[in-house]
Write the structure tokens for this entry.
Amino acid sequence: KHKYFSGSLSILEKIPKLYGLGCFHIVMFHKSSCTKQLVDLLETHILQGINFLAICEGVAGLNFKEFSERMTCFSLTQDSNTHINAHQDYDKFYDDSLFSFSGDKKLLEIFLANFVHKQPHCDAKMETIARTSKMITCDHTFKVSKYICASRGSDKCIKQFENLFIVLNEDHKVVGWRLTKSTSFEEIRDLLQSINDCLDNPLQTVIVDDCCKVRYQYQSIFPGVVVKLDLFHATQRVIKTFPKGSEWSKQISTEFGLVFRADGDCGATRCLTTPASDIIEKNLDNFIKRWEDTLNQNAKTFKECKTSMFMLRKDAFLEFFQVKEQSAM
């Protein structure tokens, strides 16, 4: 163990990389620094879903374990006649700067500072991936943004964003993302324009959650692109209208998901290629006939089923099924 009281970024940068990487495992941030091992540990735990407070407690536990081992070794070197107060010795743990550990707020600062440092490299990687993309899937998710807030005082936390907008290509690789305060297209226009600017060839297809509403806006960024509705949102429009907790809701939800599969493909995971639009339309028509009495009791469900039939006839999301099938479904 060595104490590191201060450091100069300009001095550390002048150390040859051959020696700097091997001998000085120090990561410098604004008004603070830490070992690279701590940053790596922090990244690994965050990716596993462990919160900052739990990580802080884990680091403290590791430090205390080493402190205890050193205290044990120290006690063995003492004269047997020497009186050692174990409680007083172990109380020194919190006063020893050699075994100090960061609090959860400091770990959060380190994580964010490390993200800012790596963000240009991530952006460059996403741009490289976007260049050869032929199709993108765009969607707003609400689950992530609710965990992002700014601290005001000890307990008060102010929410900053409403959505996380994500853009994936046909290989399910991220080519762009942004935290937004609404689902307004103007908040993501420049992001989409930057993706279009780096494409080697014009984009062929864009998959969105509301193709009728945003088709012309996407086509203003990607001229001539085909805009389709994604399967997840197409099915959710119908499934979310089913009454929750009823005896038939789970069964009808499962059967509706099979409408968009080939005959015989009834397992939990899709195994066969997505059938042609006329077969899907036939499956949907059979589904409506089978559950006609039940559907007639719920006007919203019946309306969404008819809307899905209309979208199929317009070929609003067929191409998405076929492209998606090759990569993931």
User: Anything to note?
Assistant: Residues 318-329 have pLDDT under 50 and may be disordered. The two ends are 52 Å apart (CA to CA).
